[in-house]
């Protein structure tokens, strides 16, 4: 029983290695039998990897402290949900999760696309899938093995416990979403490499991987947003994004993946951007791996404390090797990578996509530069410097505004070439609406012109989406007797990619409004309030009604009862109970903020502790407490926007009736090309 | 046709280059050590100082204005220490022996920190129990 996990892990690794070696041999010598054997081995490898992962979870649930990793990351008093999440609470387990997901995805991908690709294509696909799986399993087996036993004969009766900050519902799904996103990109990468090495560089690899890419992108987006939500609710600093290196390491592949999702449309429609798509697809995957390097190598300082180990450098070597293969493959198929069309005009949709891509890649480049700035500055000037959030906001803010403009404009411009007259007709109304909002914003607050611009551009996007839906629905009006809701549903079902995409754009515009509002118009105050007294912050009065202490199983808490009233009218607004918890086992404290959320603003109260130095022996009825109070306008719309974005994505990827008909036509086309 | 791509790339990347150049000039912070500050080889505004909080050096006053004072030394061991003042609420995680990242200014007397980040003691680096079982018993006593 002891080592089912370890045994499965080793088996999984050996099978993946076999699959990679035999798979490449089969592809080079064009022997389909070897490819079949390789695919079988890869499937078996996935089964063993998942078994290893499940065994590790079981070891956590059974408090099996013979495993060093279990001992380090859990304790007897933890809730069983958090015992499972402790699997990815540290380096070793998160690497196993990563490897198992890559293996599982490879296997699912092989089963799903069994019949579709040509023999030569499939011959190269299997080993490239196996390469990712083998690499991550090698790291797990030799460098971060979570099944290592403690170097002691006596089994400890209890473990060290998991950081209380990680014992939060978001932490159950946030890392998993991120890993699903990161690992999901390994599949498009394998398809892309198979296309390069088999010489089949039609848009087929893109057709095959589109849904994968969208799903991976969706998980990555969800993971990033959940991380922001966790930071907002749990960390007590009133914000959701700090441009920390660890955040950036998930944001950079997201940027490249988003660029890729847009640029593939150009190849599908117009046969342009072929090499660019190969580069973007490969960079997205490599950037996801780079994130692992960044967070595990200790090369840049971060508040997210991951171990500073040498493991990171293995990832850098892997990235370098794969990059060399990508470039070699591109060189070998340079003829097939030539565009079959040309960019006729800047006033065309493909040009809008071009600028969209340049901006996404540019934001990624600037973010990369900012993250690596300590390393670069030391290498160039000999003195180490760092840049923080102000740098990222100042560079990326204007670039995102430009993207926002393109997001509204792009979908309305026609392919190939648009006339100025057509543009005028399409853009007059949304542009007028956007300008109106912008001017209104700038008049109401002349000191922040960029905020006015951001609101105006978001309004422009919302107007274009609204007009586009309205137009599509009026066409249907003449066709059938439907209720407006049915009509909207049918519009989306007929062209899920286009209208699902519009919904995602609408969601991004809403999120942009929320982000702008909360960055620019946030109120933040540190205050000290005595029991029975009150303090005014913004338009609210905060009265500290009561302070109390409570003792729970794993922590002790100080709880404040704060009554929030409208300062002008005296009307009751809310009663909030921010808490401070102290965990004697680990010596850590944590803040439990209380947030009164409304559609217009969040009132966010964090209890920082008792004021005064003699903290322990104080009479709570006459004590004073320190608070951090934030008033964040429109914050809730960020989370609504995120949900709407995922909803739009589901519309695109969900196998609706019409969607599968489209897929069949793609298959038929593929079969045609084959014959 | 290729010219259209090159022109587009040039436009976008020169805009990005310009934004990055000005932003770096205005927001970059020099990374300094306690040793450099005390010996006078570094000073000024826009500094980032990484250090370890010295034993028994933390004091906090909530009024009239929340003020945290402590001293830090270089990591892991430093003979010289520097006094730090931070106007803000006492962070939970600030304790003697913890590593902190401070951003602020220094003009020869006290490091005035405008931001204070404490690095969480990493749960990813808990030492393994020793062969003699010493750490085991420690783990037991801490929990029982």
| The level-1 CATH class of the domain at 29-118 in chain B | Mainly Beta
Rg calc of chain A: 27 Å
Largest sheet of chain B: 5 strands, mixed, barrel
Sheet-strand content of chain A, in percent, reads 5-15%
Name the shape of chain B in a single word.
Answer: elongated
Strand portion of chain B, in percent? 25-35%
Describe this structure in words.
The complex is a heterodimer of chains A (675) and B (144). With 675 residues, chain A is of the alpha+beta class. Chain A has helices at 4-29, 32-61, 68-73, 80-85, 91-112, 119-142, 169-184, 186-198, 204-234, 245-270, 274-297, 311-332, 349-381, 389-409, 420-444, 449-479, 484-494, 496-520, 636-653, 657-674, and strands at 385-386, 523-530, 534-537, 540-551, 556-566, 572-576, 579-583, 588-592, 594-597, 601-610, 624-633. In chain A, strand 4 (540-551) and strand 5 form a beta hairpin. Chain A is globular and about 85 Å long. In chain B, strand 1 (29-32), helix 2 and strand 2 form a beta-alpha-beta unit. By secondary structure, chain B is of the alpha+beta class. Chain B is built from 3 helices and 7 strands. The model of chain B is unreliable at 121-144 (pLDDT under 50). In chain B, strands 2-4-5-7-6 form a 5-stranded mixed barrel. Helices cover 28% and strands 33% of the residues of chain B. The radius of gyration of chain B is 22 Å and the shape is elongated. The longest helix of chain B has 26 residues, at 2-27. At the A-B interface, helix 3, helix 13, strand 1, helix 14 and strand 8 of A face helix 1, strand 1, strand 3 and helix 3 of B.
């Amino acid at each position: 029983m002891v080592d089912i996990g370890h045994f499965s892990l080793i088996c999984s690794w050996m099978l993946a290695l076999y699959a990679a070696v035999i798979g490449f041999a089969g592809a080079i010598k064009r022997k389909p039998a070897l490819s079949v054997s390789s695919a079988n081995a890869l499937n078996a490898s996935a089964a063993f990897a998942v078994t290893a992962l499940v065994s590790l979870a079981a070891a956590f649930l059974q408090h099996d402290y013979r495993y060093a990793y279990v001992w380090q990351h859990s304790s007897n008093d933890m809730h069983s949900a958090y015992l499972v999440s402790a699997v990815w609470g540290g380096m070793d387990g998160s690497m196993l999760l990563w490897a198992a997901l890559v293996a599982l995805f490879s296997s699912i991908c092989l089963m799903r696309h069994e019949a579709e690709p040509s023999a030569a294509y499939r011959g190269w696909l299997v080993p490239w899938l196996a390469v990712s799986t083998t690499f991550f399993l090698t790291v797990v087996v030799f460098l971060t093995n979570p099944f290592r036993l403690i170097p002691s004969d006596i089994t400890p009766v209890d473990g060290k416990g998991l950081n209380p900050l990680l014992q939060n519902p978001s932490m159950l799904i946030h890392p998993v979403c991120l890993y699903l996103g990161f690992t999901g990109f390994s599949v498009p990468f394998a398809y892309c490499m198979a296309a390069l090495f088999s010489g089949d560089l039609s848009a087929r690899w893109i057709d095959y991987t589109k849904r994968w890419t969208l799903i991976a992108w969706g998980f990555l987006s969800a993971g990033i947003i959940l991380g922001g939500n966790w930071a907002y609710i749990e960390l007590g600093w009133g914000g959701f994004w700090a441009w920390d290196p660890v955040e950036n390491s998930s944001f950079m592949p997201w940027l490249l993946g988003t660029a890729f999702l847009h640029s593939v449309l150009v190849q599908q429609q117009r046969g342009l951007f072929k090499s660019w798509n190969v580069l973007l697809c490969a960079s997205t995957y490599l950037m996801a791996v780079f994130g692992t390097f960044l967070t595990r190598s200790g090369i840049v300082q971060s508040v997210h404390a991951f171990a500073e180990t040498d493991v990171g450098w293995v990832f850098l070597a892997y990235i370098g090797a794969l990059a060399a293969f990508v470039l070699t493959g591109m060189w070998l198929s340079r003829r097939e990578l030539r565009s079959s069309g040309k960019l006729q005009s800047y006033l065309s949709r493909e040009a809008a996509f071009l600028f969209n891509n340049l901006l996404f890649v540019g934001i990624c480049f600037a973010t990369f530069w900012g993250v690596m700035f300590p390393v670069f500055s030391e290498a160039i000037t000999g003195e180490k410097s760092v840049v923080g959030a102000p740098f990222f906001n100042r560079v990326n803010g204007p670039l995102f505004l430009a993207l926002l403009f393109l997001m509204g404009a792009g979908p309305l411009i026609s392919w190939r070439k648009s006339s100025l007259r057509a543009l005028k007709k399409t853009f007059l109304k949304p542009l007028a609406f956007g300008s109106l909002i912008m001017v209104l914003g700038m008049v109401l607050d002349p000191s922040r012109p960029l905020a006015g611009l951001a609101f105006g551009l978001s309004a422009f996007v919302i107007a274009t989406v609204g007009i586009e839906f309205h137009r599509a629905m009026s066409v249907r009006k003449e066709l059938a007797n439907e209720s407006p809701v049915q009509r909207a549903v049918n519009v989306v079902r007929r062209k899920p990619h286009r209208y699902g995409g519009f919904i995602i754009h609408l969601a991004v515009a809403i999120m942009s409004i929320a982000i702008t509002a909360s960055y620019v118009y946030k109120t933040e105050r540190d205050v000290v309030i005595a029991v029975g007294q009150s303090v005014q912050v913004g338009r609210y009065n905060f009265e500290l009604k009561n302070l109390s202490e409570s003792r729970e199983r794993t922590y002790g808490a100080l709880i404040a009862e704060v009554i929030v009233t409208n300062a002008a009218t005296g009307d009751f607004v809310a009663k909030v109970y921010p808490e401070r918890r102290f965990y004697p086992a680990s010596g850590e404290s944590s803040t439990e903020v209380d947030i009164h959320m409304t559609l217009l603003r969040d009132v966010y109260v964090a209890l920082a502790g008792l004021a005064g130095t003699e903290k322990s022996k104080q009479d709570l009825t006459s004590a004073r407490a320190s608070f951090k109070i934030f008033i964040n306008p429109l914050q809730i719309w960020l989370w609504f926007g995120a949900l709407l974005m995922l909803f739009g994505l589901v519309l695109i990827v969900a196998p609706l009736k019409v969607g599968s008909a489209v897929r069949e036509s793609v298959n038929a086309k593929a079969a045609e090309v084959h014959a | 046709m290729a010219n259209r791509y090159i022109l587009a790339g040039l436009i976008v990347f020169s805009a990005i280059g310009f934004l990055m150049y000005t932003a770096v000039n205005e927001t970059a912070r020099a990374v300094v050590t306690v040793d450099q500050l005390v010996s006078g080889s570094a000073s000024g505004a826009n500094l980032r100082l990484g250090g370890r909080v010295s034993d028994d050096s933390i004091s906090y006053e909530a009024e009239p204005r929340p003020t945290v004072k402590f001293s830090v030394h270089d990591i892991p061991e430093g003979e010289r220490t520097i006094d730090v003042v931070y106007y803000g609420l006492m962070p939970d995680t600030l304790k003697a022996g913890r590593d902190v990242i401070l951003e602020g200014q220094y003009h020869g007397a006290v490091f005035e920190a405008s931001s204070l980040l404490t690095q969480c003691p990493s749960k990813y680096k808990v030492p393994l129990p020793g062969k003699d079982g010493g750490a085991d018993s420690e783990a037991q006593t801490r929990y029982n």
